[in-house]
Design brief:
Strand order of the largest sheet: 3-2-1-4-5-9-6
Helix content: 40-55%
Shape: globular
Number of strands: 9
CATH class of the largest domain: Alpha Beta
Number of helices: 11
Order of helices and strands: HHHHHEHEHEEHEHHHEEEE
Distance between the termini: 50 Å
Largest sheet: 7 strands, mixed
Number of domains: 2
Structural class: alpha/beta
Amino acid sequence: MPPSVKSFLKTVLPGPVVDGLKGARGRLRAVRARWSWPPPDLYVRLYRRHIRHLSDEDIVGEGQLFDLIGRIELGVLLAEGLRPTDTLVGLGCGTGRFAVHVIPFLAGGRYVGIEILDSILEKARDRVARHAAPPSPPCRVDWLKQTTNVFSLPDSSADVVCAFSVFTHMEHEDAYRYLKDARRVTRPGGKFLFSCLPMKHQAVYDIFLESARDDLSQRWNKVRNVTTSEDLMESIAILAGWAPIRWYAGNACNIPLPGSGELAALGQSVCVLEAKA
């Protein structure tokens, strides 16, 4: 409260009453912060609630399709020149679907898996321990919990960053903030690969129309699927310091599977960015 009001209250009210008013104002600020919308930890809350409604099988994700998607994700990184000795950052690494395939490839390299919840990271650690054959020379593996758009990594410390099924669940402004700090941690000439849902295909139109049936509070009361366009995502990437290189359309069999060369579709479109010098 303004100094003049404080001085007046001190002259007409006992000290304990004035102190009580100050305490009440502090408690009111805390209540407002608690019930503000959106809360500062919105994504953490949504994912925590989302996981509570899934079975262990859903979270762990066993099965042929789960494994195939991990192989396709590795395939697109290999097509974009990932090297065994590279440092690869997996933003939104999930439960290790992709990590079990890429870690054996990174002989002498490093893999950094980043997630928003400890429980998801624990599933990833367990999956990698059970299913990923260690390469020779070994790959350094680190797991990081990250609840903000700031990476706990030094400048220019990553060769490649990937974010599969990450920007599909957040607002474009938040995607920009992640891209901006990812540019800081990526060396000049390094790459960032992310998947998204451009509105070019019928399946994505259906996702948008389903979301449009909910009002604002309903849409942001759950982990949502955010649709976009290639032009918009490229514009955001350019603002964050990246140069768009190419796209892999999500509905086309255009990604070679490691080991077989057979072409497969990821389902989500993949954008490849390069860190401008």
